[in-house]
């Protein structure tokens, strides 16, 4: 099956692997802040539309906050609206087809070209984060006439003779029906990308972590609802839609404050301010629509000096205050987590001191027992075990809730991540204690187990114990969440990748580089075999006692095939020996090529000696071919 979950995991793993490559510089953070502003500006524009109770004067003012809308308005003076529709549909279709193509390549087990993967990475960055609200608006241009005075598709199809708004009549339905399908696929693609696009390594300095996807999924669901509910205002009153979106935004902000999803505290603060600003606007929208309904007026009929307009100007003035308050809430939440960490650290130190100083006996047995007790307070990372309390223990332990440090597993995970982001190497044992305490209090939490596994592999650097935990977790019969399943797949893939890169002799290679290496080796061996086959065919024809009339032509064909295969083998071996000159398998393969095709015994022996030196770890035996003029390309002919 083409769309198996493992194939999707593989696509997002390779596409997001560049996130693990740190590129230092402040421009990364500046770019993230710009994206936050662009995204927030689009949402502000949609919230403040007249369909949700805002007056034309206020809506016109807040539209200018959206940079994408400003560019769109300038281009709209010279470009017809159907052009934006065609551009949006083509862009979305290219992204979807590129996704299908890359999935097909992964299901086949090789990627011959890197461009499709890079294009998909670019499409996710632009269509999902930067321009989602604008692109989805352009995709729904055929239906705009249902809720606005914009010209319908019929007007353009009939060259201005008919301007009736009938998007579901023939022939307009031939455009409307595929448009709905494209929009559904686009929204599904965006939701999946928001969950699976993150940095796997907890030590990454990039903004997005695994838990980021769960909040981003809710936020993207809100943006989708905000864009779609406009078309249902005929059936639903603005009060109902505004109340629904207000509740959804409160859920988003609550999860944001509980999880603190981004690696960087500054982005968490900014997102907290942005979410509370949206809540302020949505709450004001509920009040606007209620006041307008009580006065019997529509949003488009609001007068300049009326009470509804005055309320809207006050709301606009209060938006910076709401933003500052939201940022303060996020910052205050981080301080509260740090206070919890300080309290737990004090408890650990007090318990260690009590166990160390308690009692006056100095016998060897008691001293050994004290050492074990002290070590049990902050055990080594590999000593963490998951102990599940039975129903009997839960029933009779009436003081358990009072002894718990973390009310939820999310709180334990957030606390552990906050401690990690202090970036103090001396806190690693205490970090392990936090994970142990969280697993003891919430042993059935998949999120904590996955965090523990990632910490073992990347933070505590205990790959063996991490592999054991992954194996145990894989054997469980649970249905994992999509992002947890992706993490298990990515960790397994990364372990295999590390093992293979060590055999090649180059550490830190990406999956796409390994695919490039495998593809190059496959091509080189294919040309190598073609050379041998062509020469065998040539000598077989020459050895015949009776020759046909076409024998000379057949022999020349075999020589042409040999020449073509030889050039192809030279080309593949040349660039591979330049880029992967520490691969023993490649050197062995090239040595065989020199022996069986080039008939160069001296070069063959030299390459085999180099390959054996690589396998034994003695790199001093390597000669200077790769640094001489022409390098390996020259030795390859």
From TrEMBL:
Residue ranges of the region described as Disordered: 615-637
Transmembrane stretches, start-end: 83-107, 119-141, 173-196, 217-237, 243-262, 274-291, 311-330
Domain TmcB/TmcC TPR repeats: 496-617
Coiled coil: none
Keywords associated with the record: Membrane, Transmembrane, Transmembrane helix
Keyword Methyltransferase: no
Family annotation (Pfam families): TPR_TmcB
UniProt key word Ribosomal protein: no
Protein name, UniProt field: TmcB/TmcC TPR repeats domain-containing protein
Organism from which the protein derives: Hemiselmis andersenii
């Amino acid at each position: 099956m083409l769309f198996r979950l493992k194939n999707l995991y593989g696509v997002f793993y390779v596409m997001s692997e560049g996130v693990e490559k740190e590129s230092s510089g402040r421009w990364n953070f500046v770019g993230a802040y710009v994206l936050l502003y662009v995204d927030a500006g689009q949402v502000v524009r949609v919230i403040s539309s007249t369909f949700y109770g805002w007056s034309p004067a206020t809506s016109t003012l807040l539209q200018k906050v959206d940079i994408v809308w400003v560019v769109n308005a300038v281009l709209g003076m010279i470009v017809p609206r159907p052009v934006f529709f065609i551009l949006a549909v083509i862009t979305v279709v290219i992204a979807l087809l590129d996704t299908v193509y890359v999935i097909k390549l992964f299901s086949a087990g090789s990627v011959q070209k890197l461009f499709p993967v890079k294009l998909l990475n670019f499409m996710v960055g632009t269509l999902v984060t930067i321009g989602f609200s604008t692109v989805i608006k352009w995709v729904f241009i055929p239906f705009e006439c249902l809720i606005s005075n914009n010209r319908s598709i019929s007007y353009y199809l009939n060259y201005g003779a008919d301007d009736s708004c009938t998007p579901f009549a023939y022939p307009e339905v031939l455009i409307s029906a595929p448009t709905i399908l494209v929009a559904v696929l686009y929204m599904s693609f965006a939701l999946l990308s928001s969950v699976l696009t993150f940095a796997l390594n907890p030590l990454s300095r990039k903004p997005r972590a695994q838990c980021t996807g769960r909040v981003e999924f809710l936020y993207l669901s809100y943006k989708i609802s905000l864009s779609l509910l406009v078309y249902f205002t005929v059936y639903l009153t603005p009060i109902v839609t505004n109340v629904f979106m207000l509740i959804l935004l409160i859920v988003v902000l609550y999860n944001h404050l509980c999880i603190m999803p981004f690696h960087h505290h500054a982005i968490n603060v900014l997102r907290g301010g942005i979410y509370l600003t949206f809540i302020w606007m949505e709450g004001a929208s509920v009040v606007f629509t209620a006041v307008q309904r009580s006065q019997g007026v529509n949003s488009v009929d609001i007068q300049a000096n009326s009470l509804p307009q005055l309320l809207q100007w006050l709301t606009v003035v209060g938006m910076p205050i709401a933003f500052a308050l939201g940022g303060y809430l996020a910052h205050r939440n981080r301080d509260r987590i740090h206070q919890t960490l300080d309290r737990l650290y004090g408890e650990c130190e007090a318990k260690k001191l009590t166990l160390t100083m308690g009692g006056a006996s100095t016998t060897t047995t008691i001293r050994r027992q004290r050492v074990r007790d002290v070590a049990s307070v902050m055990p080594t990372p590999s000593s963490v075990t998951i102990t599940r309390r039975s129903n009997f223990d839960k029933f009779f332990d009436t003081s358990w809730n009072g002894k718990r440090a973390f009310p939820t597993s999310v709180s334990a995970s957030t606390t552990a991540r906050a401690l990690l982001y202090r970036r103090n190497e001396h806190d690693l044992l205490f970090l392990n204690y936090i994970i142990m305490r969280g697993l003891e209090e919430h042993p059935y939490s998949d999120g904590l187990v996955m965090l523990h596994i990632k910490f073992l592999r990347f933070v505590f650097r205990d790959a063996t114990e991490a592999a054991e935990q992954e194996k145990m977790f894989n054997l469980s019969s649970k249905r994992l969440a999509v992002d947890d399943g992706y993490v298990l797949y990515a960790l397994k893939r990364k372990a295999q990748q590390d093992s293979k890169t060590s055999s090649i002799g180059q550490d830190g290679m990406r999956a796409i580089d390994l695919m490039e290496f495998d593809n190059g080796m496959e091509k080189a061996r294919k040309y190598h075999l073609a050379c041998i086959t062509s020469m065998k065919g040539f000598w077989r024809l020459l050895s015949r006692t009776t020759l046909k009339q076409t024998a000379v032509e057949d022999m020349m064909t075999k020589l042409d095939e040999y020449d073509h295969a030889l050039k192809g083998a030279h080309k593949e071996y040349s660039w591979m020996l330049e880029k992967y000159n520490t691969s023993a398998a490649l050197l062995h393969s090239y040595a065989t090529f020199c022996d069986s095709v080039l008939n160069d015994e001296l070069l063959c022996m030299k390459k085999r000696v180099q390959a054996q030196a690589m396998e034994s770890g003695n790199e001093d035996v390597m000669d200077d071919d790769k640094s001489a003029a022409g390098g390996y390309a020259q030795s390859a002919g």
